Each structure stands twice: as C-alpha cells, then as structure tokens.
C-alpha cells in the first residue's frame, strides 16, 4: 500500500478550545486536514473582513527548494456564525509524496482588502511526514492436522 502522510500537528485545530477566538485574532486559521489517495484535503477558516477575498495554500515537498501554491475554494454552506468563512483545498501530491521519506510543509495565505495574513502554525509551518502503511495482519494458515488443534470426541 502507498505511504500515508502523517500530520506532525493536531489534524483538527478547529476542534480545539478557543479556535473561534484565534480566527478573530489572527484572521486566518487551518481548521482541519486529512490525507487521501488524491492528496491532502483540508479546510481553512477566515475572518470575514470583506466580500472579496482570496485564500491559498503554499506547500513544498523538498524543504522549500521549490514550492507550489493552490487556491482554496469558498464553501457556501460555511459556518453559521456570520463572522467567518470557510475555504476548502486539495494539495494534489501525486507520486512526489508516494515515497515513505516524503515530507510536506505548508502555510495558508489569506488576502483581503489590500492586506495579507498567514497561518504558518506559529512560524513552524504545518508539517506532515510520509509513513509506510502497515498491511493488515494475517495470521499463519490454519492447518486442521496441526498439533495446535485439540479435537474432542
């Protein structure tokens, strides 16, 4: 089976206490991520400062020797608080992340009303590492003539 990207941070920051306050204070925060065969899927919450806004995720697989950036899509069925909006993203990692030694780093960028805000996990970036999936354990084949079997008459 292909390797799995394992977050080196809590994968659901949006479920932690004080999340809404952190969004208000910093304007943008990662809400959750999930590794999938297609790549890394996630959601970002931003403070609704203006109607027009752009959210993107900048990422690297080689320690920032090169990077790519993908836009996040506005989610109309977002939070009902009226203060924030939700954006969803998919980092299409493909074969580059298929190696067990893969390391992914990313940060979220929010541009609104002439300003730019970043969520880079407090300066450490959001990091994930490749981890080889362990195939399901299968025991030895059962031999009915094995001495391990006890027959009752």
UniProtKB/TrEMBL annotation:
- Lineage: superkingdom: Eukaryota
- Supply one GO molecular-function term: protein phosphatase 1 binding
Any one of the GO BP annotations: regulation of glycogen biosynthetic process
UniProt domain CBM21: residue ranges: 20-129
Q: Which GO terms describe its cellular component?
A: protein phosphatase type 1 complex
Name assigned to this protein:
PPR3E phosphatase
This protein's encoding gene: Ppp1r3e
């Amino acid at each position: 089976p292909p390797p799995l990207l394992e977050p080196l941070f809590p994968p659901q920051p949006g479920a932690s206490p004080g999340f809404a306050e952190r969004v208000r204070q910093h304007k943008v925060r990662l809400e959750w991520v999930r590794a999938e065969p297609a790549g890394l899927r996630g959601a970002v919450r931003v403070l609704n400062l203006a109607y027009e806004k752009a959210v993107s995720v900048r990422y690297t697989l080689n320690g920032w020797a090169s990077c790519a950036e993908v836009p996040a899509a506005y989610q109309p069925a977002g939070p009902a608080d009226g203060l924030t909006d939700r954006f969803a993203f998919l980092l299409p990692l493909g074969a580059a992340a298929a190696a067990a030694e893969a390391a992914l780093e990313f940060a979220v960028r929010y541009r609104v009303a002439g300003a730019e805000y970043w969520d880079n996990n407090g300066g450490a970036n959001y990091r994930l590492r490749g981890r080889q999936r362990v195939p399901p354990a299968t025991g030895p084949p059962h031999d009915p003539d094995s001495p391990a079997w006890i027959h009752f008459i």
